[in-house]
Amino acid sequence: MYAIVDIExxxxxxxxxxxxxxxxxxxxxxxxxxxxxxxxxxxxxxPVFIQALTGIDNEMVSTAPPFRQVAARVHELxxxxxxxxxxxxxxxxxxxxxxxxxxxxxNCNKLCTVRLGRKILPGxxxxxxxxxxxxxxxxxxxxxxxxxxxxxxxKLFSLLLGSDTGxxxxxxxxxxxxxxxxxxxLPKADVDQLPLVPGVYYFHxxxxxxxxxxxxxxxxxxxxxxxxxxxxxxxxxxxxxxIFHITYQExxxxxxxxxxxxxxxxxxxxxxxxxxxxxxxTFGIYAFEDQRGYIRLAVDKQRKHSQTxxxxxxxxxxxxxxxxxxxxxxxxxxxxxxxxxxxxxxxKHGENCACGGHETADxxxxxxxxxxxxxxxxxxxxxxxDRGRTYEEHSCLxxxxxxxxxxxxxxxxxxxxxxxxxxxxxKPHFDNGYxxxxxxxxxxxxxxxxxxxxxxxxx
Length: 459
Description:
This is DNA polymerase-3 subunit epsilon. The chain has 16 helices and 16 strands. The protein is an alpha+beta fold. It folds into 4 domains: 176 residues, Nucleotidyltransferase, domain 5 (2-Layer Sandwich); 81 residues, 3-Layer(aba) Sandwich (GIY-YIG endonuclease), CATH 3.40.1440.10; 82 residues, no CATH class; 71 residues, no CATH class. Helix 5 packs parallel to helix 7 and helix 12 packs antiparallel against helix 16.
């Protein structure tokens, strides 16, 4: 037995909205054998645009029962049936949420007439309920009213049952089939072609724009996890409605997938990604020559097209590093903007410091150069070499002088003792502190994957 359901609501997500009308048509596989409908008092104002759409206003529902009063009857009708609706996850999420609030648990198999329509009646100009019914000659005597839409969906379902020569309905109801969990607009073929390997996947909207980027150890399993459960909040329901297509990139390892996800989120800025999109103000240590010819070091915000000695994640990190250089190489704290008052220099040389002109600019520049060469020599230049996407290749991420250079894939038998040769195989990316920290942490845990390089440090 099937329960064909339609509801009208005060909004698009169950967690913050109420039901204003519900209709249920019990279908025995041949015809409708029982009907139930009721206006519902949602316990809140109905927005004006929804009143205009449905014709249900606040006055009409003022004397209607709240959902709790009809919950037992609704649950009795649905509990042992297959729940059918046009865009089933929307109706199911509302009914299940409000039944749970009334103390009833609902766990039904589901069928979506949008998804079934695309399979059984391919090539239709539109699969919205109104346009599909008009194209098929199905009358709807109450569009955007619960019973009108439920009755039209019941007629559509009867037509689908009679036209299902490919046994799509039976396949969808198989215990292991997860098709009814999929978003209404997402073809099952997109999910079927997903591999069981590490990688990055992309959700696209109706126009093909990427709206979400995710990483996975197992692409198919991770994608399906987005569609499990019936979270009723607005963001999830809107997110699911906007998924029309999935693409992916395979990666050799989880680390490559993590790094590629970070790169792609920064590149594409998808609407539904929250993490990794926050603005991260980075700072840098700069070296420049002042009007007197002295080399000065300073910590400042990193700016486009500006060359830094070193990129740091915070102002504090930058000043800690500068203080270390001042202490170890007896640099001038005033020329490094650490001491900012007009008092006598508190550096190692005191009154005889370079800031007072007691050391030539050339001599002081030599000490600054020694400090920076020593500092840069301690920055790692390493590659992480690991599994590739096939047996013929290896994955590789490169850190050069303490900065993320890029990543890619190299032949499995390639010798990469030459840094320039390795870089020719990799795709460069902007320095990314998130990826840098991730790669260095991975290197600490898996030292056998590290390829070390010695680089010439120029200042």
